[in-house]
Write a structure and sequence with these properties.
The complex is a heterodimer of chains A (about 280) and B (about 280). With about 280 residues, chain A is mainly alpha-helical. Chain A has one domain: MetI-like fold (Orthogonal Bundle), CATH 1.10.3720. Helices cover about 75% and strands about 0% of the residues of chain A. The two termini of chain A are about 40 Å apart. Chain B is built from twelve helices and two strands, in the order αββααααααααααα. Chain B is globular and about 75 Å long. Classes of the chains: A mainly alpha (about 280), B mainly alpha (about 280). Chains A and B meet through helix 1, helix 2, helix 4, helix 5 and helix 6 of A and helix 1, helix 3, helix 4, helix 5 and helix 6 of B.
């Protein structure tokens, strides 16, 4: 962190702030570092110092059928949830920005609620719905749960994009004889490309990681977080560290991709806080 | 500019979806909370207040709720103590490194919640990383047992998870403070301390409120960290709900507790929004 000192405008007191920042970063990254280091530790999880570094746990992992089945399940769930959230979240954003209808305020709050509510409430209320309607729990019920909870992500991202959008292009398209359907696909969607891709990435990642809602809607087939959860309850092996390390690496790629995308027009800070800010302003 | 047909086409599908998968389930939860379970383990659709009376009468329920709130309060306070100075440092002192450091705060959010909680378990366990490190450097002779399976472990883990959530809105609020206000304060002779407490901090209060709400609500409803790290003394209210929906098989009572949480959370969001409006300057 030495580079900070030279860059920052150091005035009295800011040295403590710098120390504090270093400490907080250490706190945030300690578990991640431990996770990665012990994925190479032949002696299992825990124990200091780690020794006999090995790739053995990765080899075990690649031969582990159930884990890869659950990864496949999670990928399917995330893709399907992404489709549902976008299919309903994008029109919801259009409706919120452009239409007046009774119950609009309630609608907006309902859409955003699952993002701030503890997952247990969303999960249990859907469990009751599926129970009353006699729906068998399966990956489909998890998809419905994720899809519904993450509509909020698509709506907030696209709504923010719409507010920056110049309506003149759409107006021109309509004046020149294109119908609403053509205008939507040829003008509105291309103009909202960035928020839509951003929302899709975010929904995908959140769904891959989601456990609180899935916990209650799980059928016979596990998603990856639930497979990990099952193993954690039985006892811990560095194999979990190995799979988490691999997923962390993939997430990093997604993050870099996402920031590249968002940096094109606005500062990174704007991009990330947009969602959280929108949720907080509109959640109630 | 947009025809009636367009508005209907964009509004009706999401309205229907949200009604079926959000509104109806919440209403069902409301209904369930007034039903009961018979001795033969079937749901009785007879309406009464028994579940709510039981919540008041049986100590373990409201005691666990209070303990959960106390854990959430500690998590919120710690997240703010860690998040606020960090946000302040980034916003005012980090210079060109600002964006990079900002992303470094966000990145842990992309590592699975479950995996981070489990990493803390491997750090805090009696033969975990911390205890073996302490013995390795001869600071302790025996493993410290209070580290894992205690409310301490739950508070530590939840603080780790929700600090970025507290940080984000505070940072956004600090970034939105016009820098000429800060300069004006300096020019008019205020010390850095006065500038902070009289100009910067009051303007950042909406961000603090938003961050605090996030940290409190999400940690209040958590049930995975207590299951992994809490032990018997770290049980939280959601764990009781989970067992009522599982082995204990009393969905109506579980629904009543969930509904209390829902009301508490929505009330808190409402209250925090009112306060944020009061403190926002634009």
């Amino acid at each position: 962190m030495e580079f900070l000192v030279s860059e920052a405008k150091l005035i009295s007191g800011s040295r403590w702030l710098l120390l504090h920042a270093v400490a907080v970063f250490a706190f945030l990254y300690l578990p991640i570092a431990v996770l990665i280091v012990y994925s190479f530790n032949s002696e299992g999880v825990g124990g200091f110092p780690p020794h006999h570094l090995t790739l053995g746990w990765y080899r075990t992992l690649f031969a582990d059928g159930p884990i890869w089945d659950s990864v496949l399940n999670s990928l399917q769930v995330a893709l399907a949830a992404m489709a549902i959230s976008l299919a309903f979240g994008v029109p919801a954003a259009l409706a919120l920005e452009r239409a007046q209808f009774p119950g609009k305020a309630l609608f907006r709050r309902l859409v955003l609620l699952p993002l701030i509510l503890p997952g247990i409430i969303t999960g249990l209320s859907l469990l009751m719905l599926f129970n009353v309607t006699g729906t068998k729990l399966s990956l489909v019920t998890i998809v419905l749960g994720h899809g519904t909870a993450l509509i909020s992500v698509a709506t907030t991202e696209v709504f923010a994009g719409l507010q920056k959008l110049d309506r003149a292009q759409e107006e021109a398209s309509l004046d020149l004889g294109a119908n609403y359907w053509q205008t939507f696909w040829r003008i509105t969607v291309p103009n909202l490309k960035l928020p839509i891709i951003g929302a899709a990435l975010l929904i995908f990642t959140l769904s891959m990681d989601e456990i609180a809602v899935s916990f209650f809607l799980i059928g016979r087939d596990n998603t990856l977080p639930l497979e990990i959860w099952g193993r954690l309850r039985r006892g811990i092996t560095p194999e979990i560290n190995a799979v988490s390390t691999i997923i962390f690496a993939f997430s990093l790629v997604a993050i870099v991709f996402w920031y590249r995308l968002r940096m094109r027009g606005e500062s990174a800070a704007e991009a990330g806080t947009e969602l959280v800010g929108a949720v907080e302003e509109e959640a109630v | 500019m947009f025809s009636r047909a367009y508005k209907v086409a964009v509004a009706v599908p999401p309205l229907l979806w949200v009604t079926v998968f959000l509104l109806v389930p919440y209403l069902l939860m409301f209904c369930y909370s007034f039903w009961s379970v018979s001795a033969s383990q079937t749901i009785q659709h007879s309406w009464n207040f028994d579940n709510y009376l039981q919540l008041l009468r049986v100590d373990v329920y409201w005691q666990t709720l209070l303990r959960s709130m106390w854990i959430a309060v500690r998590v919120t306070a710690l997240s703010l103590l860690l998040g606020y100075p960090l946000a302040y440092f980034l916003s005012f002192y980090a210079g060109k490194k600002k964006d990079l450091l900002y992303q470094l705060v966000i990145i842990p959010l992309w590592v699975s919640y479950l995996v981070r909680a489990y990493a803390w378990k491997t750090i805090l366990g009696s033969d975990g990383v911390l205890n073996t490190l302490l013995q390795y450097v001869h600071l302790t002779k025996h493993p410290l047992e209070f580290l894992l399976y205690s409310p301490f472990a739950v508070v530590l883990t939840l603080t780790h998870i929700y600090t970025p959530f507290a940080f984000l809105p505070i940072y956004a609020a600090l970034e939105h403070i016009p820098r000429n206000l800060v300069e004006a304060s300096h020019d008019l002779g205020a010390t850095p301390g006065q500038t902070f407490w009289k100009v910067i901090f009051p303007l950042s209060i909406p961000g603090v409120l938003a961050g605090a709400t996030f940290a409190f609500v999400l940690s209040l409803g958590d049930f995975l960290a207590p299951l992994l790290l809490g032990g018997p003394s770290g049980i939280m209210i959601s764990n009781i709900v989970v067992s009522l929906f599982g082995a204990a098989y009393n969905w109506p009572l579980g629904a009543a507790i969930s509904l209390c949480m829902l009301v508490l959370v929505v009330g808190l969001l409402f209250f925090s929004e009112r306060l944020e409006k009061k403190w926002s300057f634009s």
